[in-house]
Amino acid sequence: MKKWTSLLLALAMALSLAACGNSGTQENTSELPASVSGSIAEETPAPTDTEAPAEEPAEEPSEEPAESETPTTEDSSSVLIAYFSWSGNTEQVAQIIQQETGGDLFEIAPATAYTDDYNELLDIAQQEQSDNARPELAGQVENWEQYDTIFVGYPNWWSDAPMAVYTFLESYDWDGKTLIPFNTSASGGFGRSLSGLEESASGATILEGISFTEHTLGDAQSEVTAWLDGLGL
Ligand SMILES: Cc1cc2nc3c(=O)[nH]c(=O)nc-3n(C[C@H](O)[C@H](O)[C@H](O)COP(=O)(O)O)c2cc1C
Known about the structure:
233 residues, alpha/beta, Rossmann fold, six-stranded parallel β-sheet, 55% helix, globular, binds flavin mononucleotide
């Protein structure tokens, strides 16, 4: 009887040990996804790491064209078209020159705008001329050094250039620059302004300019094209 009891006890112990062994295996198995997902989680930074270098080459080419574009931009902007215009005629010619040359436009504008009244303006302009005034300007040319060829346009005011044009000319260093004048008038052309230009833009090489009256302005497009061709521009 004792033998049977011992045998039964031994059998019961063997069965419970077997049951423990199985539950251990299950625990390990249930940990597997955790460790697998753990290893994925550890690898997760890897795609981030591989994304980072992927971005670097993308940045490099985008910087290169910017550098190679710089000289082209500098070349095309070595021409400046500076103009003064009260009623729009000179501005019209300036725009044609801009289209033909691809240069930069700059308006010579007084800090305090002139009156819109023509008769009042006649008096103001005459007064400024007899005072040899230099009216303050609204703005300055940025990067003056980059320009080699500067067109300067203005209307005839009392047989001369508006005094603001002299303020402009005397604000910059003209050594080594080429100045090309253009002008509009009722009939008087450049008047005596060309000698004023020579004085105020001393150091500049002054090329032959072009002048339009209110009657010849309609031909400005073809005239300007032919004139620029003649200048080799
Ligand atoms: C104050 C003033 C003075 C002028 N003096 C003359 C002049 O002496 N001789 C002339 O032919 N035209 C004269 N004009 C006419 C302008 O030169 C002409 O209308 C010019 O085309 C205007 O150019 P804008 O439209 O660019 O201002 C004068 C115009 C103004 C407003």
